[in-house]
Amino acid sequence: MTGAVESAEVRQAAPGAPALELRGVCKTYGPVTALQEVDLTVLAGEVHALVGENGAGKSTLIGIAAGSVRPDSGEVSIGGRLLPHATPAAARSLGVAVVYQNPALVEDLTVAENLLLAAPAGRRARRIDARTRVRAALDRVGLKLDPRVRVAELGPAPRQLLEIAKALDADPRVLILDEPTESLTADEVERLFALIRGLTPTGTAVVYISHRIAEVRRVADRITTLRDGRIRGTSDAEGIDDNAVVQMIVGRSLTAVFPDRTAAPGPQALTVAELGGAGFTDVTVAVREGEILGLAGVEGNGQREFLRALAGLGPATTGTISLGGRPVQPDSPGAAAAAGIGFVPADRLREGVAGALSVRENLAAGVLSRFASGGIVRRARELTAVRREMAATSIKAASPESGILTLSGGNQQKVVLGRVLLTEPSLLLCDEPTRGVDVGARAEIYGLLRDRADTGRPVVVLSADAAELAGLCDRVAVFSRGRVEQVLEGNDLTEDRITGVAVRATGRHAAAPTSGAGSRRGLLGRMDAIAAPVLLVLAAVVAAATAVAVPAFLGPMNVELLLYAVAVLTFVALGQLVVLLTGGIDLAVGPLVGLLVVVMSFVLAQGSGLLGGILIALAVAAGVGLVNGLLVAVWGLPPIVATLAVSIAATGTALLLRPQTGGSIDAGLAEAVQAAVGGVPVAFVAVVVLALTADVVLRRTRAGSALRAVGPGRTAATRIGVRSSVVLVGAYVGCAVCTLLGAFLLAAQIGVGDPTQGGSATLTSISAVIIAGAAVSGGRGSFTATLCGALLLAVITNATSFLGLGQYWQFWLPGAVILLAVAVSTRRHHGRRHP
């Protein structure tokens, strides 16, 4: 509570005091200077706009202020206090909240979990108050959806609103908004501006970054220009016009943003007749040679679904499409490309670029066969074409071999457009081609689109910016409720008319189908533990079928031994799940079991101190987990490489300590560990309690949310203040401790130090987790379901022995179950993702 009171006092300080100061900030990336001696002061209670072209250094500056980027020199002060070290957690603790252009959201967490995970320490709600807190945060930004929906199911606009809600919920001293309106409708933009106006009287400073000049002039008190990594000046927003702002941004005057339209378009090139599909129906439009057709309408009225259907990314169930006089059926992206249809997606990061590849590889990906001889790509020919396209599209990159993610957003967008243009499509489809692009790059993209149309090829552009459509397009089709309400051209083609038709449409067409996110079926589909009852039923069926053939299978002695084996495997599998939730894997658990059994044969022998021996075994296990965690989290090794190396070391150490089986475990201790009550091993009861408790922690605590967040969304988790490295190290240590529990049971059962024990534990633990429906990418899994998965595997293995089947069945049957489980899990996972 002290922190919350302190921050409120700071925000209520007299307006005019510095809320955010950057002094002498420099940052370089190799030979590229991103920021040079930057000084910026943002006052409490003001809206300070930061403008500049893509690549000017805005994102780097934001990252430094938010603690996610470490400057080479200079210092950051927030509310009069120096940022002690460059971490998002430190910046957030001083009152900085950021709305990122690419929202810092963890897709596999729910809306509510994302909000609660991001809450600063002083504002974390009690569990009983969490629902009210989440609902209030969503209502504040006008977001009406089920808080239990996973973020992966949301479209761009709800994600952006959730990102804004998350930042506002932190009650920040400094709120940084990076292109906050790119995915929002006009009404949502108005709501955001109203929220900003409500913040500044309390002393909150707002840093507003946008390429939309009209928004900047409307919302800002002062405007600072960043160009080529340097501050070029700060001026009051009042009285400044668009041309002056543009000249500040690009350092020159842009006399013509939109190129001239084609004087006389040719004959019809694209004809769409009565096309219908999910979200649209009876759409009839035609595009002539040399023409750019715009698609407009309030978001959700079918225009995006229609465009994606033309690109083969959505179903078209009725109607016909003709291109160049030939009928086409773009029922898949490959079929669309083969028909000469090129598509530029709105979300360049998720659908446009391959993040691990270079600029050259991204540009040439669609036309590699053009540069190949005998199946071998000729690099010289490829580079010549790539350099030519980079020059034609004005892509700014250090070299063609630069990583695509090192480029600014505008240059990434031109790479996506350039790749499509290299295929020389007969029809070019563009979904929000200038989203997140600066005014200079926009003009270049407009020119590229018009040049493409001037070659006689039709172009279709979807945009939420009515001014963009009015200036760029020859005609605009306005959608309403899944149909074309009106086609505007000539003198009717104005921003006001496009907006007016879109918001005043009265057609009574069927609304587009919804995702059903709040339905009972949708909620069932989001339950990670749905595999548990299925696995229990399967285990019961296998056990019953075996007992029919061999009644002794369900005899008391075999059941007790079976449940004890389940406990051994489950402890190890629970540890494996902890690591898998972070997106990693631990190949060292099997060799660690062998090493721990050997160690226990020394420290838990007859006459040795029980407590001291347990502590030594715990230290060995924790030490191995710590090494794994440091290799992955600090040194950045891939988990499969780090844990493979540790597994080899563990195996070697076990063989060094005991080249042959020897030693013994205290008989009394072994008897106590294997105790049973009513034929049920105490160890099995303990592992059931542990699994159930772990699921409660995983779903109902911030620590559990943080564990699930660092797997599929480590960058996003770090940005919202999660100490990802600490979580990763903790996960590997936790895995090792769980492995220790399994090894302890195994050592008590076999009674001697055998370095070969645990050899199969790695594969069987991974199998149990995968059967239980956990995602190998991290973020999803259930400890209870993992227990059930281990039970099914143990029953199958035991049943094959009782039935006298060959040993190979012990591999075939679990393998078949794994394949089936992965297929079902993958289908559920992808089926709930927003297209």
From TrEMBL:
PANTHER family: CARBOHYDRATE TRANSPORT ATP-BINDING PROTEIN MG119-RELATED, GALACTOFURANOSE TRANSPORTER ATP-BINDING PROTEIN YTFR. It comes from the Bacteria. The chain crosses the membrane at residues 530-555, 561-580, 587-605, 640-657, 677-698, 726-752, 758-776, 783-803, 809-826. This is ABC transporter domain-containing protein. Keywords: ATP-binding, Cell membrane, Membrane, Nucleotide-binding, Repeat, Transmembrane, Transmembrane helix, Transport. It is found in: Cell membrane. Pfam families: ABC_tran, BPD_transp_2. Residues 20-253, 265-506 form the ABC transporter domain. It is a multi-pass membrane protein. It comes from Pseudonocardia xishanensis. The keyword Acetylation does not apply.
